[in-house]
Amino acid sequence: MHWLIFAGLGPPIGLACVFTGIAVYSANPFDGKLVDMILVTAGITAFAYIFGLLPALVSGWAVRQVQIRQLRPEWLWVTLIGTLVGFIFVVAFGAVLEALIPSGLSVFDIRKEAFFVYVPTCLVPTLVCWYLSRHSAGRQSQTP
């Protein structure tokens, strides 16, 4: 159940965070009609799983390790995991993008807006999925 929570809910929650981050940094990011926005969102949801499944599974694995080892305070460890996975994802995505489309910039030239949008894109879903999976961890450890 733990893996289904992270794999199933993490990417769509991350997509909502991306939309929120874009709205914060843009004056009017969605100036189309509501129907157009719904169709675009439905199409983008597939990309949320393509880009978000690996970070969700890595976060899920790391959170499960914290739960198994009963590290306290658990919320602090989960926050660190979400932040670290988000940071690594931003840097790795920047490196892959630079390799595919050379622009003469280094990974360290990533704009700060990317960190303020994409790190919470991993942090928020990690915290939400952890909260939902806390009770699942206790039940899974009791099964033979």
TrEMBL record:
Asked if Membrane is a keyword of the record, the answer is yes
Key words of the record:
Membrane, Transmembrane, Transmembrane helix
Superkingdom of source:
Bacteria
Membrane-spanning segments: 5-25, 37-63, 75-95, 115-133
In Swiss-Prot or TrEMBL terms, this protein is called Amino acid transporter
Instruction: Give the source species.
Output: Microvirga flocculans
| Taxonomic lineage | Bacteria, Pseudomonadati, Pseudomonadota, Alphaproteobacteria, Hyphomicrobiales
